[in-house]
Write the structure tokens for this entry.
Amino acid sequence: MNTADEGRQRQLDAASVINAKKTLLQLLARAGVYTGDAEELIGLVETGALSLAHAEVDGIRKSAPEERGEGNGEEYAAGWADGARTVTDALGVLAEQALVRAVTAGPSADAADERSPVRRAEMERTKVAVTPLYLSFSDVSDLDPEVTEQVLGAVLRTMSPRQRAGYPGRLAEFTSAHQERLERLYAEYGPGSPIAVHGRYSLVHSPTSVAVLERLAATPSALHEEWDAAELPPAWLDGLTTAWGSPA
């Protein structure tokens, strides 16, 4: 391959992509990350890349360029749309396949849409998601009950692996849709409030409260079931339920 050919190369070949993936897996393994968790995270990144490509091509499909050369403009636009639709459909299928592979990679998740034990990567992704959302409404509290994994475990067990994969996005949508209500809740019951030391509202001092509130709004029955199964303090859930249901 000459210099001109190298300059024209726009895509990585399969061997180079596999090499990069293996290198990343080895680096993560040296850092103590379990291979199954690393493969799941890489799979979700791959799914995201395909999903973004799907959205971009779908946008192109809806904006066919002007006719080039002779011919019927409507036929040209229709052909453009049909071709783009074919690519969009193919990318959608590939993204779905990648998602299923990612969320069923471990031994504990045989089906993407059935509840299964919570995996380490799922737990860590949720921690990463809830912390900045919580800090957008409240300050760090010394009264955090330090039961993050138990609480998030109950939250995540209300969902299938597929739903857990998209849970960070769901949390972001929830906090955006209920921003004012959450601001009032944390101001009234969270760190710095007059009732900050009340045990009933202890969980308001934890980033996990964002996820618990989302589940209370979305699927309260399943959350209560998993909460009881985990033997978590009923008062914590009752306190959040009361705070969430308080009038403005």
